[in-house]
Amino acid sequence: MTGAPPRSAPSGERSGDRSGGESGERLSPLAERLLAGIGDPSLPGLEADFRRLGHLGDEELGALLPAVYLTGDYPLRSLFEQVIAERQVRFSPPACARMFDVLERDPRSFGFLELGAGALLRCTGPWPDGLARPAETLVRHWLGSDEARQGIPFALLTVAALAGPRRYRKVARLAAGQGPLARAELDLLKGWDVTGHALLAETVQTRWAHRWAPLPDGWRRLADHGYAAFGRSVLEQARDRVEAIQDGRIPYEADKAFTAGEVATLGRAARVALMADEPWLPELLDRLLRGVAVAPTAARTLPSQALLYELARAGQDFPTPELATSLRTVRTIARHAAVPKQLDKMLKKIEAALADRADVALRLPGLGFGADGVLLTPLGEHEAVVTAGEKVELSWRGPGSRPLRSVPAAVRRDHAAEVKDLRALVKRAGAHLTTLARALESGFPGEHAMPYGEWRARLGAHPLAGTMARRLIWEVETAPGEWRAGLPTAPDAPFALLDAAGEALPVPGEDAPIRLWHPIRATPAEVRAWRDVMTGRHIRQPFKQAFREIYLLTPAERETGVYSNRFAAHILHYRRLFALFRARGWKSRMLGPWDGGGEDTAYRTFASGTWRAAFHHEYVPALDERELATTDQVRLARREDGGWRDAPLAEAPAVVFSEAMRDVDLFVGVTSIAADPDWQDRGEDLHLAYWRDTTFGELTASAEVRRDALARILPRTRIAERCSLEGRYLVVRGDLRTYRIHLGSANILMEPDDSYLCIVSARGKGPGTVFLPFEDERLALILSKAFLLAADTAITDETILRQIERGA
Questions:
Q1: Radius of gyration of the chain (CA)
Q2: Looking at the record, which segments are called Disordered (predicted)?
Q3: Please, how many CA atoms are within 13 Å of residue 251, restricted to the half-sphere of its CB?
């Protein structure tokens, strides 16, 4: 290489008309006061102004940031960094020059290369002259530091390119990629301009990278810079390498198939291809994932655990249903004990992210299924039947279509390969449907609608997806602002949408919008009607819809305005809470007995990232092995001008508010110590008053839904005459005593003295074949306890009998 990459500024971006201020930039009065306060912290009113930091414009933040770093005030810097981590900060050319000047003044304190490289990408106009000098200082300092011994980061190459050809050549000679794929990436980079260098540096997660919110078009610009073709090449080389390991051409070493540098390169390549939804990618990634997840020997190790997880992380950034399906398959074949659990966590994030790529999420292959969701495969005199319904199941028929209980011996003997393929097909189809269900549910808050013609082709009449669509309620816009709900007909009938009374809706036009029905938009009578349909026809939906909890704004929440105390002051099992945060797609720091581990706010975005819910909670130091947390406010914020602004709860779309509160209700209901039947038996009074008040307290929305379901289920059971619903309890009349099962906690009081009956899990006969319209562990537990207690004279468990007989 003979010189530095050519300099280039972002094209098509305007500098804008600026006036006023020393730098020629126009600042708002708030920004002017904050700029003055950064230089003179004694000015009056600064505390209130700094609380409004989020109200600054993106370019105003860029104008103030150099002054913040110049002060060396770490708390002030941290305050600004919290804001810019969520904003698309922009620098005018003068602000960009000041940023580099500040970094040059004391590179030992804040010569953070990412700040300089990031400022270049966020400059609103041509880069200012004179950046080579501060860039030279930054590079020289870095090369003389201990950091240089740990490798040459892309940000350093970016700043070196800005410093000039001589400096770039020296730094480039020191950059030695780990492994051939990483070295190929460096060779690619040497032919790029400074902007290309900065774009690649932007993708690297370092200890300073949190300072910038990701560029919304960063990956697209990187792909357009020439990375797309390179990415396909290295992914193909990686696939070929793992296949060579699998067939023995390359000796196997656990977790040594790829270097750390190569894993990072392949992660970038995968993201670029996933972002573009390249048609060649699904098959390639499927083969690559299978190759890195299982050793070619019987060992429980794998060729590259690091690459497996990096590709899954790429799927969290740019999810596709095919990648999710491949990861589910890998989960079942991996022998390493920790892999399935880790992939489960990552898959939940991928499924949640799919809701924001609706055009991609609804893409399912037919896999050979018929319109009725059945695939028939003749094998000699027998026939394999794969049926997609609530589950995807494989069954067998003999001559004359006679049902068989298991694989016929002749089929097992003569068609072993076909049986293996069919079982793999069952897993694959099930994985596709699971991904689809979770993507559809995650998309609820966005109220996504699609043209009816497209919906029918991709979902309603699709051979595989249709088996799920027929168990969900959809609503179509029949006139502007008017929606009618319907359930798709069975596959053996002409395709139509039937309302809750069984009447066909008018056939929609091909372009008529159709979306999932949500009970928050329906009247109570409509909700009751659809619940009757589900229980009457024994339709178990893939996720709660007809029986979905809804949360309406309360008078107290209208009064408080921007926050809700509905779920405040609860005491929760912290580790369970943190696990649920991750499972439901909320982001939160782990809390604990360390500095800074006392409190946090968990966040989750809704409606394609336009709304964000915040749930504040605090850590309670454990007296023994238990770790607890207390709850506080729930707030909602709206995305505006690239940042988050607290919004009045009343301004949030009803479905966004309801879904956010539903998550928080789940956190409290599942992890509260009130749901712990053993809590009062711990021999201490710790939080016992809370336990008593909450475990038998007012019903939450989820408990109300449980009550409604029981009202429909119980009359169909053999214990119907012994049961009644009274307020917040299911009352069960046994022969020894009468019992009241709380519909929220499932805990039990015994009449006549309201003594507590502790049953950790129901023993004996459960509800058997009782149909439940949705999956709910608490509902199943309540029914199991009801069946047990209705026949209390048949109980043989002494720990239960002693409690019953004590007060009988």
A1: 31
A2: 1-26
A3: 1
Q: What per-residue string of b and e applies to 628-646 under the rule 16 or more CB within 10 Å gives b?
A: bbbbbbbbbbbbeeebbee
Alpha-carbon distance values, 509 to 88, 451, 473, 477 (Å): 41, 9, 18, 10
Q: Are 313 and 346 spatial neighbours (Cβ–Cβ below 8 Å)?
A: yes
User: Which of the pair, 86 or 426, is modelled with greater confidence?
Assistant: 426
pTM exceeds 0.90: no
pLDDT digits (tens, 9 = 90+) for 103-157: 888 765 544 788 889 999 999 999 999 999 999 988 888 887 776 666 678 989 9
Q: Is the per-residue pLDDT at 21 higher than 70?
A: no
Establish if 232 belongs to a structural domain: yes
Q: Do both 242 and 146 map to the same domain?
A: no
Same domain (yes/no): 591, 707: no
Torsion of CA 781, 786, 788, 789, to 10 degrees: 140
**Quick one: pLDDT at residue 16?**
35
User: For 333-383, how does the pLDDT look when each residue is reduced to its tens digit (9 = 90+)?
Assistant: 999 999 999 999 899 888 878 877 877 878 888 889 998 999 999 999 999
Instruction: Spell out the residues 6+ positions from residue 141 whose beta carbon is closer than 8 angstroms to its own.
Output: 107, 108, 111
Render pLDDT for 694-748 as a digit per residue (tens, 0 to 9): 778 788 888 999 999 999 999 999 999 999 999 999 999 999 999 999 998 888 9
Opening angle at CA 746, ends 744 and 751, nearest 5: 110
Q: What are phi and psi of 599, to 5 degrees?
A: -155, 160
Q: Which residues contact 477 (CB under 8 A, 6 or more apart)?
A: 449, 483, 512, 513, 514
Tell me how far apart the alpha carbons of residues 472 and 539 are, in angstroms, rounded to a whole number: 9
Is 681's pLDDT higher than 50? yes
Count of structural domains, the chain: 4
> Is residue 240 included in any domain, yes or no?
yes
Q: Write out the residue range of the structural domain in which residue 289 sits.
A: 218-352
In a domain, 472, yes or no: no
User: What mean pLDDT do residues 277-302 have?
Assistant: 95
Q: Which helix (H) or strand (E) holds 424?
A: helix 416-442
The set of residues, in sequence order, having a beta carbon less than 8 Å from that of 302 and lying 6+ positions away, is: 254, 255, 292, 293, 294, 295, 308, 334, 335, 336, 339
The answer to the question of residue 156 being in a domain is: yes
Same-domain check for residues 86 and 235: no
Please report where in the chains the tokens 């109570």 appear, as a residue: 524
Residue closest to 665 by CA, chosen among 785, 580, 596: 580
Report the relative pairing of strands 474-479 and 513-516 from DSSP bridges: antiparallel
- The neighbour count for residue 651, using CB atoms within 10 Å, is 12
Helix (H, G, I), strand (E, B) or coil at 385: strand
Cα torsion angle, 157, 173, 273, 318, sign: negative
Percent of the residues in the chain that have a pLDDT greater than 90, as a whole number:
57
For the chain, the average pLDDT equals 87
Peptide bond preceding 752 in cis form (omega within 30 of 0)? yes
Residues 6+ apart with CB under 8 A from 798: none
Which one of 1-10, 108-117, 314-323 scores highest in mean pLDDT? 314-323
CA nearest neighbour of 583 among 775, 351, 243:
351
Q: How confident is the model at residue 808 (pLDDT cuts 50, 70, 90)?
A: low
DSSP codes of every residue in 172-241: HHH---SSHHHHHHHHHHTTS-HHHHHHHHHT---TTGGGSPPPTTHHHHHIIIIIHHHHHHHHHHHHHH
Specify the DSSP element, H or E, that contains 601. Answer: strand 599-606
Q: How far apart are CA 51 and CA 42, in angstroms?
A: 16
